[in-house]
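Quick look at the format.
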Amino acid sequence: MGAFGIGLNEFVVAGILPQIAADFGVDIPTAGLMATTYALGVFVWASILTVLGSGAPRKTMLIGLVLLFTPSNVLTAIASSLPVALAGRVLTAFNHGTFFGIGSIIAASLVAKDKQARAIAFMFSGLKLASAVILQRLSKGS
């Protein structure tokens, strides 16, 4: 579920850029900063959070990431200006890379050694399902 939520969060912006632009009174390329800031947040913060959280228990770290993810999405959703929405997107992106790294380790640790690759693939299937949902919506023009 976490991988699906993160994937949906990552990809949904592509399908609603015209609405974002209209809501904030900016052009579509400027609204595209919603995707760019997310990508930069993932790039910068994945390594930093992984290192900072290396001493924390994995399950605690994963729960902390989810607790950051949810209010950050709420901030983005209720933002009254583009800068606030961009800040929400950056905060939301903080957990992305770290979540998948820690989630992979946890998924592998929950099953027998011969099933670890399958468990990791299952976890990542949420990301792929999110991609499929977004592509389906985009193909319908909605």
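Next, a different chain entirely:
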Amino acid sequence: MPEPKQERAQRTREEILRAAAEVFDERGYNGASMREIMSRAGVTLGAVYFHFPNKEALALAVMRAQPAGIVPALDSRGLQRLVDITFVWAHKLRTDPTLRAGVRLTSEQTGFGLDDATPYLDWARIMEECLIEGRAAGEVRADVDLRAVAEFVVSACTGLQAYSLLISGRADLPGRTRAMWRLLLPAIATGDGAGAVDVSEAREAVVNA
């Protein structure tokens, strides 16, 4: 039975995005070419341009795809969900070229003429939603500015991965992420919340299994 046209088009788009992420991860924006992406995806150049009019559009799509590979897979809620997001993020930055490419392009974008804060804003919104759930569950202190904490965590993770990349090729990023939470949790969590949220290496292993 032939594959429906819409499903085939969606699958082709996903293959192009995957290939683009691999090339961007390996070569950066300036070193990547649409022809190499086409070859890596196993499609025609016309198919690439049908879905993405230029390399900038491809880069933006890769940059904005970061949460999709992390958030839907988690079933935890509230403050634990926020911690788990960062645990999966730290793990996947070492194993997933799509996430690595998204982070690399977002960090380097001003060097190739982009100025798109969407990836950072998307992460901040997702993290603020976790904090709102956490407050409703009595895990987050009433005097905490949830938006400020969400934006701080995004900023802290951005700096952590950049520092870890230079120091260890991101090998120590999970440990640095756990250390961040050991420092931050006492400032934002209620007594019960701090006791209920697991920031251990064992928890990290569970969510990345």
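The longest helix spans residues 5-31.

See the schema section for token definitions.
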